[in-house]
Amino acid sequence: MRSSRATRTTALLALPLALAVGALPVQAQPATSSGRVAPDRLSSTEQDGVALMRIVVPGQTDVDRLNTMGVDLAEYKKAVDGGLEVHAVLSPEESRQLRAQGFDVRDALADQRDFATNQAERRAAVAAAAAAAAETDTLTPLRAEWFTSVDDQRFLSVEVKSSATDAETVLTAAWDSGKGTAPGSGGTATMSRFTDAGQYMYHRFSAPLPVTAAPSSVTVTSSRGGTVTVGVTKWLGAKRPKPGRHYIADFVDHYMDPTEVTHRITTLAREFPRLAQIIELPNRTNGYRRHAQAQFGTDPASTFYVTSKAYGSAGGNDVSLALVKPDTAGSALAVAVSGRDVVVTLGTDAAGAITTTAAGVVDALNGHAAAAALLGASTYRGNAGGGVVAAAPATRLTDGLKAPASVSRDPFQMKALRIGKKRDGSKIGVFLYCQEHAREWVTPLVCVETAERLLRNYATDERTRKLVDGLDIFILPTANPDGGHYSFYDFNMQRRNMTNHCTAANADPARRNSWGVDLNRNFSVGSVHDGYSGASTLCTSDVFAGPTELSEPEARNQVWLTHQYPNIKFAMNTHSYGGYFMWPPGSYKAAGREVLPRVDFGSENYFWDASTHILSAVQSWRGTAIWPGRTGPVPDVLYSAAGNSADEHWYNRGIIGWDFEVGADVYDPATKRFQAVGFQPPFAEGHEEAMEFASGQIAILEVAQAFAADKQRPVSKLKVTGKAAGAKTFTFAIDEPANIYYTLDGSRPTFNSTKLTASGMREGAQQITITGKTMVNWFAVDIAGNVENNYKPDGTRHNYNSQTLYVPTQ
């Protein structure tokens, strides 16, 4: 514990004279009304200068000395270059006195300004909480749904937003057992407060609740007094037409590495030349290859490592290094090279003991032309390398890679499979891509299964034939082939590609599983380089975004494809695991949770409507339901993912894109808990995931097909939602996902007019309030571009909607 200031003063007075010279001054302490000495000996003016300071001392003896002197030490100590760092509460005079005695007193960690800021924030929070406690909160229902999952188990999912955002507000849900049953007869549960980036979002269940009967309504009550009752609707399970009687599926029977996957789509293109072709993407990857390495030493100071100049597969694995102790005393350090074998003769002293340090070996190797042509040497993780090395026998450098010879070590030629009867750019394009993250072994199977179903059912299934005839489909089953190979054969938890951007301090062999770029953080929209959250600039981080945006050939290949084929209007990025279905925006800046621009109201509703169709297709395979709470824009249901590919394609190309996270949690009725499945579940589970999400990818094609065929114009109407003296509130109702453009001044609406927005995240349409007689003019336009009433916003006709609203005066 920290010593009190009174104790510190006593200790200073008791110091021996020799130690007390120049010691910290003892100031007079004011007496209290009881005559005792007040614990705080500083005046209000002096108190303003007190700060929590960093002190670096050579060792523990000096820490003990500070403690004996009565310095107000915090319970903190860590080893740093130069000794130990401790923290102490010091006044400016105390800091000067300690520096005068030779102590290294550094910068302040916190001072009274921080205290004042904290106090102000606390006062504001307390005041806000008090104000909230004094008022009944308003509850806004966001979603209330029941659904079935595997084995027809029913579940309930509810989301409600309170106007009271403090942590003391508790919401409780109670639901019935079906139409006509008593409220609360189905059960009750306390809801969890969902926050993100420090901000309150809404309340929900931490996981859907199992229920015995489908509820018809749920009532949510707040500890602040608010209450709301809302109907419960069914989530998913919409009837889909069954495939033709000859429709076949199930084309994968084992996990496949990227070489197998690429061979599979190449074979398909050869087998179905009238319907498919291979597109070779222009940027070859770095390849499944590494430079060969070897490390010598047992402690950081005497350790160094060497790295071959050539990749291991190109001769680096043939290089060897030996450290030899000479038989004679007083020998000088020397380097000799014979072919690919390097020998370092270590230096010795007059007694024959080795004197060569790790830094000495590094300098000798890097300074020898023939050796430097074969390898480079570095000390261990930036250590000065002052420790003496030991002799070592000839050691062959190795790249450590374990894949069989069937996996090429050359730069990988990424390939996409293009499927369509008419592949000339005249049809709506759909881009399906998988395995951006190497360890997600199920995802390439999803893409392969989809390709197989499309081509092998074309001749016998009418629905499949319509998809292939009416669309231009691009399938990239492995977006990260190098990392995929590394995950299969070397380190199964590899997330990134294999490109090593680390400098020598992080490039030793033990770091080999920490190299690479997270390809789904390497894109140019909302990136970490622009200040967005969810990625790192640290080269050893699993979410390393790369040295620059689009630094990686794998990412550039995706961008090239979407630019080369501008007919691509839809995309699906398939990941694992967790059972999510998401769409842009995908990232935000943590400060203030500044999210990338939200998609407009019509597009948001389109995403939601399409999700019902797509996720019902997923459910049709074995009953798996993706939760409502795991459906929505990425930051709303998961986290910020700076620089992800879906944002790249949406914001730069307007491509309507989704993200699958296959591998939904599996419910265990015995424990009544959901169990996660992981990245590489037993193949029996992985197979089922591949089958159900391939069904989802087929459904995305159906969504694109409907988009291409959509000629129906939307229909909208104005809906008054509230009346009060001097004010009226209204919004618009639309028969399909569409955007509304409106004016309130009687002018002709155009695409430059005000656009209807959402009331808030996961909420309904914006509510518009007027305070006087108002002429509202508006029109709707759907996502396919069909305009209500065939109105021409840039024309002169007046066939838009118009309605005059009158505001009540009492």
UniProtKB/TrEMBL annotation:
Any GO BP: proteolysis
Repressor found in the keyword field: no
InterPro entries per record: GH29D-like_dom, Peptidase_M14
Required co-factors: Zn(2+)
A Pfam match: Peptidase_M14
Peptidase M14 domain: residues covered: 379-704
GO MF: metallocarboxypeptidase activity; zinc ion binding
GO cellular component: extracellular space
Signal sequence annotation: 1-28
Keyword Zinc: yes
Keyword terms of this UniProt record: Hydrolase, Metalloprotease, Protease, Signal, Zinc
The family this protein is said to belong to: Belongs to the peptidase M14 family.
PANTHER family in the cross-refs: PROTEASE FAMILY M14 CARBOXYPEPTIDASE A,B, SLL0236 PROTEIN
Protein name per its UniProtKB record: Chitobiase/beta-hexosaminidase C-terminal domain-containing protein
